[in-house]
Amino acid sequence: MRFERLELTNFKPYADAEVRLRDGVTVIHGLNGSGKSSLLEACFFALYGAKALDGTLEEVVTNGQEETEIELAFHHDGNDYRIYRRIRASGDRVSTVDCTLDGPDVTVDGARDVRRFVTELLRMDAEAFLNCAYVRQGEVNKLINASPSQRQDMIDDLLQLGKLETYRERAGDARLGVEDLLNSKRTLLEDKTDRIERKENADLHGRLNELESRLGEVDDEIERVESQIDEAEETKANAERVLEEYEEKTAEIEALDGEIEEIEETIREAETERETLRERITETRERIDDLESELETARDDAELEAATDEAIAARRDVLDDREADLEEQLSDLRVTQEGFRNQATNLAEKATTLENRAEETESDAAEAESDAATADRTAQEHEEKLESIDGEIDTVRDQFDEADVEPGTADGLREEIQSELSTARERVAELETELSNARERVAEVEELLAAGKCPECGQPVEGSPHVDSIDEDRERVAELETELSDARDAVSRLEERLADAEELREAEQRLAELENAKELREERLTNARETAEERRERAETLREKADELREQAAEAAEVAETKREEAAETRERIEHLEGKLETIESERETLSSIESTLEEIDELEERIDRHRERRSTLEELNDERRERLREKREARDELRESFDDDRVEAARENKRTAEAYLEEAKPELEGLEETRDELQNSIGGVKKELSELERLREERDQLAERVDALESVHEEAESLEQLYGDLRAELRQRNVETLEGMLNETFELVYGNDAYSHIELDGEYELTVYQKDGEPLEPAQLSGGERALFNLALRVAIYRLLSAGIEGAAPTPPLILDEPTVFLDAGHVSRLVTLVEEMREFGVRQIVIVSHDEELVAAADDLLTVEKDATTNRSSVRREEMPAIPSLAGDD
Ligand SMILES: Nc1ncnc2c1ncn2[C@@H]1O[C@H](COP(=O)(O)OP(=O)(O)OP(=O)(O)O)[C@@H](O)[C@H]1O
Ligand SMILES: [Zn+2]
C-alpha cells in the first residue's frame, strides 16, 4: 500500500494544499510548527477518521473556519482508492458530514463503514497501524514501557493471533454450554427414572380390574331401575290422555256456554236499539208537527196561497217584478235628485258671482266720485290764476294810456324815432368833422404866424395874402361849435324818446303773452269742469248698475234655495222606495225559511223511514239469532251427558300413583349414574397413568441417548479448546523467536556497539537487553537515544515480521517516521539512513520521514518543504526539485 496524493482544505494550519507522494523515501522538512506532522496526521486521519486522532475532531478544523476537507488517494494490492472526508463545525458541534471511499467496483459511505472497510483492507485498525507503520513523534517509549501482556496483545493482534484466542474462547464457551445442557439433562433423566419407579410400585393393573367389576354391577342396577321407570311413565301417560280428553270436552262446553251468552247479549242489545229507534221516531214526528205549525204562520206572513214550491216560485216572480219596478223608479229619482242638486249649486255660485260684481261696480263708482272732486279742485285753481292774469293785463294797459299810444302802434313809432335819430347823429358827425377841420386850420395858421411865416405859402408873413382869413376862420369855429351843441341836444332828446318807444314795445309783447295765457287757462278751466261733470254722471250710472246686480244676486240665491228644497223632497221619496225594496228582501227571506222548513220536514220524514227500516232489520236478525241459540243449547246438553265420572276418577288415581313412584325412582337413578360416572373416571385415570408410565419410559430412553451424545460433544469441545490454545502458544512461540531474531538484527544494524551482546524476547514477551558481560538490563534503563533506537528497531522488526508473516496478502503500508532523529547523534543518523535503505530492500515501497536532519534530507528521493506564512499563519507544502538522485544504498 502507498499514498499517492493528499489534498487538504482548512486542515489544521493548511488553507489549501496538495501533495503528491511517490515511491521511495520522502523527507518532509521545515521549521518548527510549520505543519510537517500535520501532513502525516492528515494521511492517518484520512484512513481512520476520528479514531486516528489523539484529541477531538474539532482540532482538525483550521481555527476560525467552518469546514475542513481531506482527500487521500492511495494504491493498494493493485487497486486505486480515494477517501474523501468533509468535517463541518457549526456552533459547538463538529461532525463528519461527508465520508466516502471510492475504489474499483466499490463505494463506501459513512465514517464507520469507511473505517471498517479500511481496517479490513489493510488488515489493521488504527491502533495496529500506529504500532507498526506510523511512529508518531514522542511515542518512542510506547512499546518499551508497555507491560508484557500489553505487548503480547499488540503483537498478537497484529499477527492476527487474537483470532485463535477468540476461537479457543468460543470452543470454551461451547464446552460450557454443553456442560450446562448435559447437567440439566442428567437431572431430568434422574427425575424421570424416579417417577417411573414410583408408578411401577402403585399396582395400577390390580386397581383397574377392581374398578371394572364394580362398574358392571352398577350398570345392571341402572338397567333395572330404568325399566321400572318406563312402566310408570306409560301408566301416567294413559291416565293423562283420559284426563286430557275430559278437559277438552269441558272446554268445549265452556266455549258453547260463552257463545250462548254472547248471542243472548246480542239479542238484548238489538232489542234495546229497536226501543231507542222507536223513541226517536216519536220525537221526530213531534218535531215535524212543530215545523208544520211554524210553516202555517210563515205562509200567512208571506202571503202564500199554499206552502208549496210552486206557490213560492210564483210569489218570488211577483216580488222580482215589483223589485225591478222599484229599482227603475229609484234610478229616475236619483237622476232627478242629482239635477236639483247641480242646479242649486250652480245658482248659488251665480249669486256669489253677481254679488262680487256689484261690489266691484260700487267701488268703481266711488272711484269716479273721487275723480270728480279732484277735477273740481283743479277748476278752482284755474279760476284763481285767471283773476291774477286779468290784474296784470290792466296794469299794462294803463302804461299805454299814460303814453297815449294805442297798443299795437309802438313798433311804427319806434322806427320813426329811430330814423330821426340816425339823421341827427349824421348831422353831429358832419359838424364834428367840419369843426375839427376848422380848428386844425386855425391852429396851423397860428403856428405859422408864430413862426412868421405864411400859413399858406410859407412865405414870410409880412406881405402874404393869406394871413387875412384867420379871423374868418375863428368865427367859423365859433359858429360850428354852437351848431354842434344844438345838434347834440337834438340827438339826446331823440335817444330818450327811442327808449320810451322800446319800453312800450316790450309792454306790448307782455300784453300779448298775458292774453295768450289767459286764453289757455280758460280752456283748461272748461276742461276741468267738463271732466268733473262727466265723472259725476259716471258714478251715478255705476251706482245704479250695482243696485241692479245686487237685485239679480238675491234672485239667484232665492232660486238656489228652491232647488235645494226640491232635491231634499226627492231624497225623501228615494228613501221611501228603498224601504219598500228592503221589505221585498225580507219577504224573500221568509220564503227561503219556508223552503228550508219544508226541506227539514222532508228530511225528518226520511229519517223516520230509515229508523223503521232499521227496526224491522233488527227484528229479522234477532229471529235468526234465537234459532242459533236453540241449536247451541242442544249441542251443549248433549256434550254434558256424554262423559262418565268413574272413569275420570280412576285415571286421576293412576296418575297420582305413577307420579309418586317416579319421584322416588329418579333420584335413585341419578345416584346410580353418578356412581357409574365416578367409576368410569377412575378407570380413565388409571388408564391415563398407565399410558403416562409408557410415555415416561420412552422419554427416559431418549434422554439417556441424549446424555450420551452430549457427553461425546463435551469431550470434542474440550479437545478443540485445547487445540486452539496449543496452536496459539505454538504460533506465538514461533513468532516470538522470529521477532527476537529480527529485533536483534535490526538493533545491531542501527546501534551496533560493543556494549550490548543481544536482546532477549521470551515467550511471555518479556524484553531483556544483555550486555557483553552477560548482565541483563531492563530496556527502560537504556539512555534516551538508545531507547529511541531500541524502539525503532522493535518497530521495524514488527513491521518486518508482519510483512513476512502475511506475505503478499497484505502489502505493507508506508513506513512513517515522525522526527526519528531527535535523540540521535550524527553517527546513528547514518545508521538510520542505512536502516531506511534496508527497509526498502525488505519491500517497503514508501517511506515518509519528517526530519530536520541534513543527512536524512540528503538521502531523500523526494523532498517536501513545509513553510508557514508569518502573516497569514497558513502553511504550504512544496516539492524541492532534486538533483539526480543518488542511491541511498550507495551511501553506506
Ligand atoms: N486547528 C488548527 N488551526 C490552525 N492552526 C493549527 C491548528 N492546529 C494546529 N495548528 C498549527 O499547526 C502547527 C503545528 O503543526 P505541526 O505539529 O504539524 O508542526 P511541525 O512542523 O510538525 O512542527 P515541529 O517541527 O515542532 O514538530 C502549529 O503552529 C499550530 O499552531
Ligand atoms: Zn513536527
CATH class of the largest domain: Alpha Beta
Structural class: alpha/beta
Tell me the overall shape: flat
The ordered string of helix (H) and strand (E) elements is: EEEHEEEEHHEHHHHHHHHEEEHEHEHEEH
Distance between the termini: 27 Å
Name the average pLDDT.
Answer: 87
**CATH homologous superfamily of the largest domain, by name?**
P-loop containing nucleotide triphosphate hydrolases
The CATH architecture of the largest domain can be given as 3-Layer(aba) Sandwich
- The figure for the number of domains is 3
Strand order within the widest beta sheet:
2-1-4-5-6-7
Binned strand content = 5-15%
Largest sheet: 6 strands, antiparallel
Helix percentage: over 70%
- Number of helical segments? 15
Bound molecules: adenosine-5'-triphosphate, zinc ion
Domain Zinc-hook: 407-506
GO molecular function, one term: zinc ion binding
Binding site for ATP: 12, 32-38, 137
Keywords: ATP-binding, Coiled coil, DNA damage, DNA repair, Hydrolase, Metal-binding, Nucleotide-binding, Zinc
Task: Offer a few descriptive terms.
alpha/beta, Rossmann fold, Helix Hairpins, 3 domains, six-stranded mixed sheet, disordered C terminus, binds adenosine-5'-triphosphate, binds zinc ion
Written account of the structure:
It comes from Halalkaliarchaeum desulfuricum. Pfam families: AAA_15, AAA_21. It is a single chain. The chain is an alpha/beta fold and 892 residues long. The protein has three domains: 2-158 and 782-891, Rossmann fold (3-Layer(aba) Sandwich), CATH 3.40.50.300; 171-281 and 648-750, Helix Hairpins (Orthogonal Bundle), CATH 1.10.287; 375-639, no CATH class. It is built from 15 helices and 15 strands. The strands form three sheets. A six-stranded antiparallel sheet has the order 2-1-4-5-6-7, with helices on one face. Strands 8-12-13-3-14-15 form a six-stranded mixed sheet, sandwiched between helices. α7 packs across α11 (645-750) and α9 (410-451) packs across α10. The two termini are 27 Å apart. The structure holds adenosine-5'-triphosphate and zinc ion (ZN).
